[in-house]
Amino acid sequence: xxxxxxxxxxxxxxxxxxxxxxxxxxxxxxxxxxxxxxxxxxxxxxxxxxxxxxxxxxxxxxxxxxxxxxxxxxxxxxxxxxxxxxxxxxxxxxxxxxxxxxxxxxxxxxxxxxxxxxxxxxxxxxxxxxxxxxxxxxxxxxxxxxxxxxxxxxxxxxxxxxxxxxxxxxxxxxxxxxxxxxxxxxxxxxxxxxxxxxxxxxxxxxxxxxxxxxxxxxxxxxxxxxxxxxxxxxxxxxxxxxxxxxxxxxxxxxxxxxxxxxxxxxxxxxxxxxxxxxxxxxxxxxxxxxxxxxxxxxxxxxxxxxxxxxxxxxxxxxxxxxxxxxxxxxxxxxxxxxxxxxxxxxxxxxxxxxxxxxxxxxxxxxxxxxxxxxxxxxxxxxxxxxxxxxxxxxxxxxxxxxxxxxxxxxxxxxxxxxxxxxxxxxxxxxxxxxxxxxxxxxxxxxxxxxxxxxxxxxxxxxxxxxxxxxxxxxxxxxxxxxxxxxxxxxxxxxxx
Length: 496
Ligand code: NAI
Ligand code: MG
Known about the structure:
By secondary structure, this protein is an alpha/beta fold. It has two domains: 6-269, Aldehyde Dehydrogenase, Chain A, domain 1 (3-Layer(aba) Sandwich), CATH 3.40.605.10; 274-467, Aldehyde Dehydrogenase, Chain A, domain 2, CATH 3.40.309. The protein has 15 helices and 24 strands. Strand 5 and strand 6 form a beta hairpin.
């Protein structure tokens, strides 16, 4: 396959204001097609706030077509396929994506506003995810059950059917693959509804899967508005599992829609994840860890470390060190590969700014940032912001901001740190920094969250289960446990 290196694609974009051969239509049953009435979405480059392409916006009738195609493909080809055949296709897709990694990285950076290197990381993680679940596709074994003489009982895992995947804009490709790879490995078919602002890489995956030999109808992509295409998808009676990543409010609606059809859901919702800096932590290592926990992807990560819970004995020194480090963050156009990127939309930028304006009116102290940023490229940028010594009941502690805002809570000792960690409705991720293993483990045990990392906030990989408790969600993605989302168990018992 011919590949074009990043540098040529970047040149092309800066010269023409767009890229050639971007997908522009819906992908249904192995065909590219326009939406009913030729409805379209404008696709913007957050780094410049300029529209660089348009994509079809699926209407209810288009969603119907996609689900019908997925249903046919499920029954006729994908459920009956051998696990090893599914594995081969997923492995081939991984290899083809690897060949096209430059193109996918450039498009992802353009569409989302994240720095090129971060987009490259997302593409690598999508490749690893495809390979990981490819390896599982021929190992979905059942059990046998000891009923004694005269009986024989065993179970098999069966794919649950057509699965809906509702994708957010912060990790468009990697979130798509995180759900689709285990679904396809298990024998389910997929209808993917990308976020309004970032549909391109999920659409581009259609060509990759097709070239890898995936039968028509197994992977369908229908960009569109949440309240139109998204709602039609999650309410449909022929969908059997919904994997949703996004806001709590929309997640509640998705769960209600699923309830009508007695469908299962995996909900990966918001977070307000704490990082506990205990009195004995290594200050330098902690400051560096916190910096990237909150400012990677400009804080637009459900599991961002958005609250620093710091022991009062090190509070001033640690905050000063993090503030100092924020000076190395230099925003620029995503394709110039800065270490600090844009906010995905004007709407999200204004939401972040609203939180900070209100906090300032309440007299909360700004240790750094606290305003929108002007850059050479134009676009939607927000200064890396640290809000210091914030009381527990403040909205900066309680609400997800989904931007580059670190909220600092000051505590006295381990018990108070754990109490502060658990003080919100969210329970997604948490980090602990300590040089004392007993203290670190006590914190890890005391924190209510789906995952805890110690001394490296982003430690982990596709092998490790991921998801939240409380309002952060239901179910787990990643790891082998995610396959359960896409399988049902059938028990077969014989008496003789
Ligand atoms: P959202 O939850 O409304 O959107 C996420 C996805 O759901 C998009 O694909 C959207 O089109 C779709 N959607 C919207 N309404 C739907 C409906 N009625 N039925 C089915 N699908 C629907 O979130 P949005 O508006 O993009 O961002 C709002 C806030 O949500 C952000 O400020 C942030 O706090 C949070 N968020 C959290 C994410 C996470 O990773 N947990 C990701 C994106 C946003
Ligand atoms: Mg975009």
